[in-house]
Amino acid sequence: MAWKIKDGLICEEEISTKHNLRLFVTTRNFGNMRELEQRNILAKTINLDIKNLVYGEQVHNNEVFVVRDEKEDNYIKGIDGLVTNRRFIPLAIFTADCLPLFIIDPVNRAVGLLHCGWKGLSLNIIDKGLLMMKECYNSKMGNCCVGIGPHIRPCCFTVGKEVMDKFNGKDGEKKTSSSWSLDLGKVVKRELIELGIKKENISICNMCTVHQQEHFFSYRRDKEKNRMMSLIMLK
Ligand SMILES: [Zn+2]
User: Fold this and answer.
1) How many A from CA of 183 to the centre of ligand 1?
2) How far does residue 212's CA lie from ligand 1's centre (Å)?
3) Helix and strand tally (H, E) in the chain?
4) Which member of 82, 137, 157, 163 has the greatest number of CB atoms within 10 A?
């Protein structure tokens, strides 16, 4: 399984094709996806109906919202994750360095999308997201497949003791007496496996949002409001 850049989108085609989904992360080519106008340009360009797009406020917490019906341009306050088993309702999150996590249950035809920064991870958003999949759709972790989109890699993610203390020491490397490089991908992968996701069902994108300026917005690098959009939709 591998992530590739195609027509300005970062795609995991094996997952999308096998499970009949739209699944991608935009590159900076499509501009700031927080803006409705830019999203409409994207929708037109890639021929995708996003009028039922659902997205959350993203407050770096662990709340996951269950999408049950269609509403136009649905903005949900106070959440960082979404799950649904409804077809043609695109779920979206916006990131610039944080880690987008896609969950697919091919057996019960349900999907989830989580916004994972270090704060959300330390509040166990992954545990919460998977629990919602189990409770709402009877998902079995052994059947689920997970995609980890582009995020800030350890090459660029230097953190202090207050952050590192919230994680397993094995997920970071000590740089100086007071700084560590934290590997969010490693944190996430370890947690997923502990929660029952099979290693072979995890596809991680190894691109770095900070390093690869030509493709990505990065909050850490640019301190700007621009965001990429991760989207998943059951077809
Ligand atoms: Zn980097």
Assistant:
1) 11
2) 7
3) 7, 16
4) 82
Q: What is the CATH number of the domain that holds 36?
A: 3.60.140.10
Ligand 1 centre from 213 Cα, in Å?
10
Q: Is 78 exposed, middle or buried (0-12, 13-18, 19+ CB in 10 A)?
A: exposed
151-194 tens-digit pLDDT = 999 999 999 999 999 998 889 999 999 999 999 999 999 999 99
59 Cα to the center of ligand 1, angstroms: 24
How many domains is the chain built from?
1
Query: Residue 219 Cα, ligand 1 centroid: separation in angstroms?
Result: 13
Residue type, 145: C
The whole-model pTM stands at 0.97
| Ligand 1 midpoint to CA 187 (Å) | 17
CA distance 95 to 209: 10
For residues 204, 81, 118 and 121, what is the CA-based torsion angle, rounded to 10 degrees? -80
Please tell me the distance between residue 153's alpha carbon and the centre of ligand 1 in angstroms.
5
Distance 172 CA to ligand 1 centre (A): 14
- Give the structural domain span for 74: 4-234
Sort strands 64-67 and 91-95 into parallel, antiparallel or unpaired. Answer: unpaired
According to DSSP, residue 88 is labeled T
